[in-house]
């Protein structure tokens, strides 16, 4: 339940992915057998995670086999309902971040992804997103996930960390060299 009460809905995370991390690990184990003797063997574990927690796991022969099975296992996990796209508990809604959220926003308007200029509406219900201070500034580019579309309910907006900022390749002035120069 949301910290603000049961009438509050947690919105989908921006850029939500079913899982935010996938791991393939080699798992050694010591096999004992009265018949053929004891030895070390390996298998590989495929793990799907959200926000640092393993939500789906499969065991296969080795890393090579795991690479081959990876996409099938991804769909298997989705079929079992383990993909999750809304915000979770009090964790930051920035995809790829697993910090605790300290800033809570109410979303003002809902936008269609396909035609946000024409298809949008004021939200009457309280639908929130939560971010850690580092991810609390959302920018002015998106419709749904933009500073302008949020009303702050609690917390203090933090500053961007310089290492998070990367200028768009095509975002600035594009210089076109004239022929002969
Ligand atoms: Zn964050």
SSE layout and pairings?
Layout: E1 8-10, E2 21-31, E3 39-50, E4 53-60, H1 63-79, E5 103-107, E6 109-111, E7 120-122, E8 126-131, E9 150-154
Parallel strand pairs: 1-8
Antiparallel strand pairs: 2-3, 3-4, 5-8, 5-9, 6-7
The chain binds zinc ion.
Features:
mainly beta, binds zinc ion, single chain, 9 strands, elongated, four-stranded mixed β-sheet
Mean pLDDT: 91
Estimate the helix proportion, in percent.
under 10%
The whole-angstrom Rg is 23 Å
Q: Beta fraction of the residues?
A: 25-35%
* Overall number of domains: 2
Structural class assignment: mainly beta
> Main beta sheet: strand number and arrangement?
4 strands, mixed
Distance between the termini: 64 Å
**List of distinct ligands in this structure:** zinc ion
Quick one: how many beta strands?
9
Order of helices and strands: EEEEHEEEEE
Total helices: the number is: 1
Report on this model:
There is one protein chain. With 181 residues, this protein is mainly beta. The chain folds into two domains: 8-15 and 86-161, no CATH class; 21-79, no CATH class. The chain is 9% helix and 31% strand. The protein has one helix at residues 63-79; strands at 8-10, 21-31, 39-50, 53-60, 103-107, 109-111, 120-122, 126-131, 150-154. A four-stranded mixed β-sheet has the order 1-8-5-9, with no helix packed on it. Strands 2-3-4 form a three-stranded antiparallel β-sheet, with helices on one face. A two-stranded antiparallel ribbon has the order 6-7. The longest helix has 17 residues, at 63-79. It starts with 7 loop residues before the first strand and ends in a 27-residue tail after the last strand. The site of zinc ion has 8 residues, from loops.
